Amino acid sequence: MHGRPRNPSKPVDEAASAAKAEKLRLLQSQFLSYHHQKIYTKEAVELSAKLVELNPECYTAWNYRKFAVENNLTQAGSDPSSVKSILDEELRVVERALRQNFKSYGAWYHRKWVLSKGHSSMEKELRLLEELQRSDSRNFHAWSYRRFIAALMKRSEEDELNYTTNMIEATISNYSAWHNRSVLLSNLLKKNVERFSKKDEVLIEEFELVGQALFTDPDDRSSWFYHRWLLQHTVKNDAPLLVSSWPAHGSDIILSGDRSPESCAFLRLDKFQFPSGRFPLILYFSQAVEGVNSSTVAIASRFNSNDTLIWNPLSTNSSRAAQVWVTWLNFPDSDPHSFEENHIKVTVGHCQGIISSSGFHYSNISDFVFKVCVQPVKTEFVEGVVIEKISWIDENFLLCEPHSVESNLLALLDHSSVKDEHETAATIWQANIIAEEIQNFRELSDCKLGKLTLARLLTAHDALFGSRKFPNSEEVLRLYKELMKLDPSHSQYYKDEYNLVLLEQVMSRRESVLSHCFHYSDLTSLRRGYPICLRLHKLSLSRVGSIDKLLWVQMLDLSHNELKSIEGLEALQLLSHLSLSKNKLASFSALEPLKHLKSLKVLDISHNEIGAHAIDTTRYLCSSPLSHSVGSEWGQDKNGIDVVSFTNYWEAIFVLKGLNLTQLDVAGNAISDEKFNLFLAKILPKLKWVDGVQLD
């Protein structure tokens, strides 16, 4: 574990093993008899002591001893000496069991239970721990128990930090000591203890300490893990930040039903087919937060009362904390002859209440302004419109020329990040630490962990200096490619990290984004003016990243990749067309983020692996009908779905029901057949096209 070689097991003496097993069976048989009859005599208790010393993992025996202790304490009454004698004997039994098996969960838990009764010496416990840790200084049970004892003794976390220093200096490969150090240091920094009030000085000292360990033994993984933890704390802001929003600052939004070509100069919401005059406002934070509501976010608008707006977290779990939050703004239909402009100002954080999962408050006041133009709806363009099939073939997509791209989209690409406009310059100490660590790790880049850490450092360096400058991305991509070859057993992890850097590189420069923007133009179609399609296809993507830079996307092509999950896409509330064809999606569980995309009309999940696997390893991500987390939605009307279909396709129901899909492609999946297609028509009442075939 952690790079430490295992000692080969010794040959087993079969005769001795058989004798021990027979003895254990006899003890257990007699013990269970006492336990079932609730016999707590001296003989019965001594027999249970022999059992736990022979097999410390026998939880039933430890629980029996708890009942026995309670019984004996009741008989002892208030006699202090009798109580102390009973508890001391119990501690001796636990100690003998621990010497038999130092990693016994049951023994450690039982010792904590005994100490909770009081009447025990904490100093004696610390001495025992030090003795036991001399035989195995890395044992995490002992370190966990030490934290328990330190809390009972009210020992200062600073004293405990010094103890970890001594243990690390004795053995730099002591992973548990490094881990305990990270726990203690986090608490000390959060509490702003006097000697730890200056985070920069503390982290600089820690980098020096772990650096000595790394250069002493580069093959030991314990110090590498601690270095990674330090790096995260160096670049991470404790308090949450508003990273991006939609609409972005300076955006021009037109609410219109007009499909005429001349109105395409703006990003037009009529293409999303939202209810008249209704569109989303999305906030994307640097980490999961809760407390986003009308008190903490103020919206200045003539048509929307701040108190009536409801903010919802976009999360695939039931937590009230989420990285992305959305509300819906409403505008009435305008006068038929007007083209009225409405300026909307959004202010985030003017009142405290937005708080991260780790307990830090949103401390910056961020505001942005955008303009909404309510254009008269020309119903003649809408009445009788035939819903046409979208074909994702390459011939139907024409690369956007920069001069032909909507001016509003160019503004979005330049100003989509709220963080850009309020970017706090990297402090000198952060920049110095990262630069020095990069230089150090270039000397260790011959080894696997050295390359990985250098890639992380270069990525952190780029992140420090703004979201639109990534000077080290090419070197980072090269390092991950080398790691895939050097360490094939972890190639999927390196590939995921490679993809995140690649997408960040693609989405952070206007020229790069435009090289992936296409106009959809099916020559057989009567309709014109489809939204711009962002084509991130054929990139071998195994993960989707840079979600904060995709909030504007309406039409997205992620086909011909290697995606097994679409985590993060729930934030794309404007998305109306999505292709996930020819990926590695193994089940509808992997598509759970689609539940939140109420604007989605066209979905292509053809040629994946849905239904091909007998065991769905992603199913735990999706609540089943047997889970309480889904709530009452499973008891709602099943729209005529028979019991067999409901049982066989419950995941599809859970993900797809409630969507407004008009086109769905599922061909090429194991689950796809005529029966499944008929089932889709039942749960998706607006569906007009399935696998290229128009429904009656």
Give an account of the 3D structure:
Helix content is 41%, strand content 12%. It is built from 21 helices and 19 strands. The strands form 3 sheets. A 9-stranded mixed sheet has the order 11-12-13-14-15-16-17-18-19, with no helix packed on it. Strand 17, helix 21 and strand 18 (689-690) form a beta-alpha-beta unit. Helix 14 runs antiparallel to helix 15. The two termini are 61 Å apart.
Integer average pLDDT:
81
Give the overall silhouette.
globular
Overall strand count: 19
Helix content: 40-55%
Report the β-strand fraction as a percent range: 5-15%
Helical element count? 21
Protein structure class: alpha/beta
Spans of 5+ residues with little confidence (pLDDT < 50)?
Answer: 257-275, 379-384, 420-425, 620-632
Give descriptors for this structure.
single chain, 696 residues, alpha/beta, nine-stranded mixed β-sheet, five-stranded antiparallel β-sheet, 21 helices, 19 strands, globular
SSE layout and pairing:
Layout: H1 14-36, H2 42-54, H3 59-76, H4 80-100, H5 105-115, H6 122-135, H7 140-153, H8 157-170, H9 175-191, H10 199-216, H11 221-235, E1 242-246, E2 252-255, E3 267-268, E4 278-290, E5 297-300, E6 312-313, E7 322-330, E8 340-348, E9 355-356, E10 366-374, E11 397-399, H12 407-415, H13 418-421, H14 428-442, H15 448-464, H16 473-486, H17 491-507, H18 510-514, E12 517-520, E13 533-535, E14 555-557, E15 577-579, E16 602-604, H19 643-648, H20 650-656, E17 663-665, H21 674-683, E18 689-690, E19 693-694
Parallel strand pairs: 2-3, 2-10, 13-14, 14-15, 15-16, 16-17, 17-18
Antiparallel strand pairs: 1-4, 4-7, 4-9, 5-8, 6-7, 8-10, 11-12, 12-13, 18-19
Helix pairs in contact: 1-2, 2-3, 2-4, 3-4, 3-5, 4-5, 6-7, 8-9, 9-11, 10-11, 11-15, 14-15, 15-16, 16-17
